[in-house]
Amino acid sequence: MNNSDTLETQCQPCQGGMNALSQDQIKSYMQTINPAWQYLPEAVSIKRSFNFKNFSKTMFFVNAVAAMADQQGHHPDVEFGYNYCRVRLTTHEAKGLTTNDFICAKKVDGLV
Fold first, then answer.
1. 68-83: per-residue pLDDT in tens?
2. Which end of the chain is more exposed for a tag (fewer CB within 10 A), N or C?
3. What are the structural domain ranges in the chain?
4. Residue 53 and residue 87: Cα distance in Å, rounded?
5. Structure confidence at residue 5 (pLDDT)
6. Per-residue model confidence (pLDDT) at position 10
7. Are the C-beta atoms of residues 47 and 37 closer than 8 Å to each other?
8. What is the DSSP string of 8-69?
């Protein structure tokens, strides 16, 4: 199974012992998601900003992200305002990025 196939699956529960991805693995996974996602090495996270026409559309997106995150059991940091939303993903338990972060990035993109 390659990285692209992995991202079509569901998040795996973090039950201790989940290892963070290596820099090479992160680089490989970054090539499989939308290029609008940014890797933030200092925060060991990935982030993407979204813009919307108005507050209503922003809130619809935020609520869809929340529902998807609950279903996946993997929750991003979300910041939003009138016509924007920023989504940041990391796996706190692993103290870095895991496959779950890239799975959720793909699923967030599918909500747009």
1. 999 999 999 999 999 9
2. N
3. 39-112
4. 17
5. 55
6. 73
7. yes
8. TSPPPP--S-PPPPPHHHHHHHHTTS-TT-EEETTTTEEEEEEE-SSHHHHHHHHHHHHHHH
